[in-house]
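Entry: Phosphoribosyl 1,2-cyclic phosphate phosphodiesterase
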Amino acid sequence: MKIVHYQFFIKKMKIRILGSGTSTGVPQIGCKCLVCTSIDPKDNRLRASAIIETDDARILIDCGPDFRAQLLHQPFEKIDGVLITHEHYDHVGGLDDLRPFSRFGAVPIYAEKYVADGLRSRMPYCFVDHSYPGVPNIPLQEVIAGQAFMLNETEILPLRVMHGRLPILGYRIGQVGYITDMLTMPEESYEQLAGVDVLVMNALRIASHPTHQNLEQALIAAKRIRAKETYFIHMSHDMGLHAKVEEELPENIHLAFDGQEIYL
């Protein structure tokens, strides 16, 4: 495999896992399984999302329907941009809740073209030329897989991921890779993740799934990427109890949990 080295000059970073769950969340409505009835807070998983803070930027990755709840008890601070992986509701359903953050100025939304087109169709009132009071100030910025861009002085590299047959985006920010909803990834994307210190990546459940990695596939991908530390997200109740699965993982691979903070 050809190794590509990217120059990301970021002195320090912090990742906060806002949600580590899949589209239904955990507990899943109506379910009485061991995970959904667990009293361990690490088994409560809101929809997948994270905030990454660099030297000069506070970046939200995905903005799902749990966004309001996820931010209620966090410091109310400027969000410099939102990176969207794809248009599924569990990743974009909270965009309207960015309204309060518009007090700090525009909150640009970064997405590839087909996702941006879908958001304009789904939420037209947010993207009209002459908006009315109360509408979130969230201008769309189109990005292309493999073409890095700058958010303030922070370099961001969108990279191609396959969600079953749907092409979506993962992101590399400095020494962090963030991948969700992946089933497979092209060779180029593996090369673009070479040398990351922290990898946040999806692992849906134990059994196989037609559009997401299961735990075994995620472990294989993590071993190939070789990050110093890997954290699995986008987990369903079928992943099992956090404490039990965590004990069985390699030393440098973990199940993420809501509210977890990871420092580089």
